[in-house]
Structure formats: C-alpha cells, structure tokens
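REVIEWER CHECKLIST
Item 1: Sequence provided? yes
Item 2: Single chain? yes
Item 3: Sequence as submitted:
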Amino acid sequence: MGTPETSREPCPDRILDDIGGAFGMGAVGGSAFHFLKGGYNSPKGARVIGGNQAVIMNAPRVGGSFAVWGGLFSAFDCTMVYVRQKEDPWNSIIAGAATGGFLQMRQGLRASSRSALFGGVLLALIEGAGIMLYKVLSQQQQMPIMIEEPAAIGGLPGQFQGRLPDQSVPETGSSSDSGSWLGGWFGGGNKKESSQPTSSGSETKILESFDAPPVPNFEYK
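Item 4: Structure as written out by the authors:
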C-alpha cells in the first residue's frame, strides 16, 4: 500500500486528472443541490420542471468553479513538488492556502489572507485524516493471521487451535509405558522396536502392541 502522496498521478498528469475529478464532483453535487432547491422554490405542479431548469442554469457553473479550484490547487502542488523536491503533506497544505488566497485576490488583501488561512486549515485537516486512515489500514494488514487446526480424528488429544504459522505443535505420546492388555496377554507387550534417528537427533520408538504370538519351537535343547 502506497502513502497518500505517492499513490497520486505524476505531476504533469495530476493537473488534468484533478481538473476532471473536480468538475465531475461539482457538476454532480451542484445538480443535486440545485434540483432540490429549484423544486422547493417552484409552484405546485411545476416542481420537476423548475428543478430541471435550475440544474441547467447552475450545475455547469458550479462544476466550472470546482474545476478552477482543482486546477489551481494541482498547479501549486506541482510547483511545490518541483521547488522542494519531495512529496509530503506540506505541499498540499501550502497549495491549498495559495489557491484560496489567489481566488480572493480581487477582493483585497484582507479577504485574500482570510481565504488563504481557511484553505490551509482545510487542507491540513484533510491531510491529517488521510494519514490517520493510512496508519489504521497499515496496522490491520500487519496483524498476524491465526490458523485453526482441524479437529482430531476420534476425539484423540493433540488439537491445538489458534497457533501462529511459525509455531510448532508439541508432540504428545499416544501410548503408555505398559503395553495394551492384548499385547500383555500374548507376551509381546514389552517388545519395542527402535527406528533410525531423525534429522534432529531424537529417536522415534514404535510400540508393537498388536504383534502376533511367537511361533513355538519344538527343538530339543
């Protein structure tokens, strides 16, 4: 997952991308707002027609205003990237303040300063929310995945649920020191056959408790 700064388009293409996205956002939002406002201010029986006329008259203007704001913001953002030679939230904050001050320049220095301060604070809040969301998503992706072992067959012990992928399962002995009653009856309860040592240096012993009884020997000694 990339950071909010590196996941955007490169700088020359970023301006056109932001202009198009801002125009679409303003056109859709302005259409919904002015349709409701035009229908509310129209007389009964002509609310739909009044809403449509309000959308036709005002939606392109709202979309154009958003496009101008988005284009200026991206232009100032790319300028800051070129001057500072790095991508960080300060570029967006400075670009928002510069955009707000530039758009209100004709209203005087006081209005321009107030608009610049408002734009900087607004972009600071947006960037802070984006950084917090990125950190929360990153922590969720870095959490270990718990793997549940399948249930043991026949109700035997050895079921370990919720272990980590790199955690080994302890070995449990399934037989006691004494042989089963069948092996003890035929005298083969104490027979043990040792296998070859494993790669870890430990030996595995197999208890043959169900061996056949020994063949009788009739030789005279």
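Item 5: Key structural point noted by reviewer: The longest strand covers residues 192-194.
Item 6: Recommendation: ____
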